[in-house]
Recover the amino acids of this structure.
């Protein structure tokens, strides 16, 4: 069935509003002249389109829909009708592709509505992806991972730079960068963000940790101890400071490593205990550490030193 103007008997909602605005839509049973059918839908128009003729948007960034929320929306549509039209593009005779409004379309199907109001727009694939993303960000509260995936798709599929992407979605570059960096986190952490077990604040702290094993350690600490964002940031700083301290520790050459290791082994044999050479940053300086386990053990070591 071709897209056509509002048919009689669809109930309340947009039909009543359009009738009040006198835009040529009839919802009255007494109307003597039926609304004309059109072979195609002009861009920018509002038409009532068969739900069966509308294909889902392949660029939809949202992957999870709250079933309870959909049922509640469906009940509202049954009573009030669909007030806000969806947006589609025409891809063939009596064939349309959804641009935005998938929740409304899904809820209408649940409500048993066979025909819904839609804006018909002209859009290419890039515009489809951009409009779907922007509509969802503004109205559907995508989770951070869904936003990050959508941003990545726009960069790759629409050949956008981060600055251009920021302009499209009204975000500054640093915000876009932070979202994209989420995709570098381990899958288990991404899943926790997606499922709401980890906040964006926790995630921003974790992306500042370079090594995966440390990210996973901090992640487990967050879950097990219920760390706040501030506590998480503090733990991240402590981990980074420990890493920096290790990086500043002087490194021996392979030859020196071998020589010092031999000295340590020889001393360990002499004193029958593990001996450690503690080298300082200044070349040629350091200390010898000989641990003891008791006063008798100390006396034994002192005898060996001829003390």
């Amino acid at each position: 069935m071709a897209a056509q103007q509002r048919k009689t008997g669809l109930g309340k909602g947009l039909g009543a509003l359009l009738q009040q605005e006198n835009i040529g839509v009839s919802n009255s049973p007494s109307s003597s002249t039926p609304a004309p059918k059109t072979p195609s839908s002009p861009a920018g128009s509002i038409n009532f389109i068969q739900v069966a003729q509308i294909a889902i948007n392949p660029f939809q960034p949202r992957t999870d829909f709250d079933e309870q929320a959909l049922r509640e929306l469906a009940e509202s549509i049954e009573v009030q009708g669909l007030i806000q039209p969806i947006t589609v593009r025409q891809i063939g005779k009596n064939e349309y592709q959804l641009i935005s409004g998938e929740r409304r379309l899904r809820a209408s199907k649940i409500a048993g509505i066979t025909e819904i109001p839609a804006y018909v727009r002209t859009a290419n694939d890039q515009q489809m992806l951009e409009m779907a993303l922007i509509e969802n960000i503004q109205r559907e509260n995508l989770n951070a991972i869904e936003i990050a995936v959508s941003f990545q798709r726009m960069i790759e599929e629409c050949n956008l730079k981060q600055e251009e992407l920021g302009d499209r979605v009204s975000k500054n570059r640093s915000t876009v960068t932070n979202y994209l960096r989420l995709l570098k986190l381990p899958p288990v952490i991404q899943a926790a963000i997606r499922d709401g077990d980890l906040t964006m604040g926790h995630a921003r702290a974790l992306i500042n940790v370079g090594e995966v094993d440390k990210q996973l350690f901090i992640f487990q600490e967050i879950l097990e101890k219920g760390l706040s964002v501030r506590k998480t940031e503090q733990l991240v700083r402590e981990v980074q400071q420990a890493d920096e301290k290790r990086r500043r520790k002087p490194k021996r050459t392979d030859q020196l490593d071998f020589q010092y290791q031999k000295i340590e082994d020889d001393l360990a044999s002499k004193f029958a205990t593990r001996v450690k050479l503690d080298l300082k940053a200044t070349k040629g300086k350091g200390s010898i550490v000989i641990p003891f386990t008791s006063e008798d053990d100390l006396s034994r070591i002192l005898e060996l030193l001829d003390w």
User: Anything to note?
Assistant: Residues 254-304 form one domain. The two ends are 106 Å apart (CA to CA). The longest strand covers residues 86-92. The mean pLDDT is 76.
